[in-house]
Specification:
23% helix, 974 residues, alpha+beta, eight-stranded antiparallel β-sheet
Amino acid sequence: MLRLSLTLSLVIGATLLPDSAQAAAGARQDSSQPGRLGHTEALVFEDFESVEKWEGFELSREQAKSGNTAARWAHMDTVTGVSCSDIPHDWRGYAHFTFWVYSEKDVGSRFMCIIRSENPATEGSDYWSVPVRLNFTGWHRFGLALREGGGARSPLGWDQVQSIMFTATGWDNTPHPEAVVYIDELKLTNEFGESGPIISDEEFFGMLREDMPELATTRQAAAAGDYARAKAEYLIYMRARKGPVWRFDWREWDKSRQEDYNTAAADRVLTHVFTWYGREADLGPDIEWTSNGFDRSEPAYTPEWTYNLNRFGYWRTLAQVYWATGDEKYASEFIAQMLDWIADQPPPVLGNPNTGPCWRTIEQGIRMAGSWMDAYHNFLGSPLMTPAAHTTFVKSFVEHAQQLTRMAVEHPEHGGNWVTMECNGLAHVGVMFPEFTEAKHWRDVAYGRLLMELDRQVYPDGAQKELTSGYHQVALRNFRAALDPALRNDVEVPEGYQAKLERMYRYNLCAMMPTGHLPPLNDGNITRVTGYLREAYEKFGGDEYLWGATLGAEGKAVPFTSYAFPWAGQYVMRGGWQRDDAYLMFEAGPYGIGHQHEDKLGIFLYAHGRVLLTEPGNYAYDRSKWRRYVLSTDAHNTIMVDGMPQHRRGLRETYEATEPLAGNWVTTPAFDWATGAYTDGYGPDRDRAVSHERTVIFVRPDYFVVLDRLLGTGKHTYSNIFHLDAEEAVVDPASLVARTQEQEKANLALVPADRDGLTVRVVKGQEDPVQGWIPRENHRAVPTPIYEKTGPCPRTFTTLLVPYPAGAALLAEAEVLDVGKPRHEAVAVSMKVGESEDVLLYSYDKPATLKANEVSADARLALVRKLGDGQWSAALMDGTRLSIRGLSAETGEPTTLSLYREATGLLRVSHHGETKVSLRLAGDLPSGVVVCVLGKQGSRAVPARVAHGALSFEAEPGGEYAIGPRELALAGGQ
């Protein structure tokens, strides 16, 4: 018996595909008649009896799969690639391309077979590929199915194959100097069959478990060779079984009748007219499942149109109307489409399924966990679901499970949200079809791989490694959805699965805006997460999840405002959790493992109830200039150098963090501070002449200071880009302040403090090059101030981001002060925002002695705010001394402090350091003062020393103290 679960693997070895199996596979077509693919005879177009056409290969008689010789390839570290264009160029009429590889040693590296079909209408290479992982010895067979619609970018087609290349570099490959391989028998063939399902009746019924007596009559009929009766008995069994149960009971289909139900959407499916991405296409009476509503030559062409066709969401549309009306024409259409797809699209026996659009593993997972599983239960009771049609449908479920299993087992390098969708689908088949002997293996593979992926693709801080607001939810949804059929049917899942899953929900809570949304990070749009927090509350309990789900209406508030994700490198600065409070997301982490944008050090800002500084988010996966724009630095709020964008794509070492970022985040009641750097080069050649460092300081709760420092060599132009979420923006020519002009909504002002050599221009709706757009929002043009400086490194920008509410006047100005050091080493800024007058001292690299405007400090950062009525606040970061307005504070070792002088004269001191320090206060202190520690249970005096007009005491980590007359200090100033 041919067991395709063993033979249908990406790597098919000679021992796994014996001659009998080859014959069985070939027997599925009538070899005496031309098949629909056009050829009955295989074409071996290269058996390497000579290697003259393949410079770099050696002719060898040591190993040969056919004939007497093969091509030997050694020293891949020096001979990194071999190619040939003297090959057949029209591969139509064949189902597969195959070749054999003999590996002398398991070295763990890989090489690629690249089949080129260059399309002059696209940028970059157009090709199909076959990866060969050298984790074996002996002969193994490799190949791929020749399906339309696949490949990288847009190959011209299988009738326009231009060359074949074997390469050990590129595609994240590293040549192994000890690898020695022999390549033989490049072949075009139809031997694996033309139509599906490829599982025979004998094999299918042989897979049913013998320990289930309910299946005895089915197995007996199959054993007798009466497959018609076996199919009938199997359908009777499936309609009678009580479990496992699905989300709904198919037996209740006739209880869902609704008079005057709108059938328009389902009627449209009957006509085979489909619309995705704004493009309608009539696919005619016989659907071609690789169809696309776009022509490949169009810039707006996206393969996602075809992928959506093969996700079958419209089967749910047919089912809804079928249940509402009972009209069998909708069941008839579903069954016809199902049978047609299975016949037209046999599973890919060789190669990675992702080379074609119909069997991509992401679509397989989506179908198995969703549209197909729903359709199976929606139409199981239809009289049109014949035993033969039913068996065909279930055969395809089995073939999907086999394909998804080999993907999970044989491709451990495969990762990201795709794996979650694949294993979610596999888990569903394994739970819902337990009658098959392989079902437990499917479940074990699915849940085991998902458990591994919860660590592999989710950081300890809860962020999914694609760092994409939308795809975080895709992964979370699939991790969670895979549990549903198991929990519903008491199927055991691995210990620790749910606990590991919870941190992804926690990420949503800690990262969300006051509105319950995440910013549009990377290939993500503004994403509402309150529903996920409700799920977390229902699954794990915890009043904080309920509080987040209800936006504070119920539950218990989280004990923080600002929050850092040190693995993701994302820093959230919040003024609070109310709808009008300020929120800023600063991205200073890795590139991400997928769906990445060139956006390091980008910022997103929300305040006073709306987004003020926006990000591009996602756009259709097409070849248009809009897609290129959203991926590039041009569309983000960061800096470009000489008009060149960042370029991390292809630098695998930048994709994910191997350890958390440290030393670049501080949060206090007075300020938040975060810093990051981009050092990976600009432009296509990754010119590293310039690096960019950005520091964001939140002056709570009002505004943000953005300090940009450009280091390196040579003379350059530096462009600091800000995408304003508004209709218009104006620039004051004297101050260079750029601000939005919304009449009934909040506004944002960009206030430059360092204006030496600074220019600014506002771009909106520019198309060549693209700038000043939010393409995801129906190509909405937005004003985009671009501040520029030109000159040799180092260069700095100092910019205030000042949000202000609807109807308010802008009251903001800033000026850089002389701090006695070059501006790229340290900066002092005088700032007036609203009623406050503030001074910021900042040293870029390490603590330093800084002085400006009667403020002096030995620190990395010092911030002093004059608040009126005798009130002021001050803060010190990584410092030992701060002097302000007649008062000085000193510590024995560097730490972080904040001070607040109330109108009553009471002084509050908060210690934010991690170790106990000795704090000495001198100067403007009233007589008779005491030091009281403030706690939840009230205030109490602590020991203090008074000598020579100075007050000293020991400050505990996290301690908050009141200093003043005894009665006032004990009351905590209340």
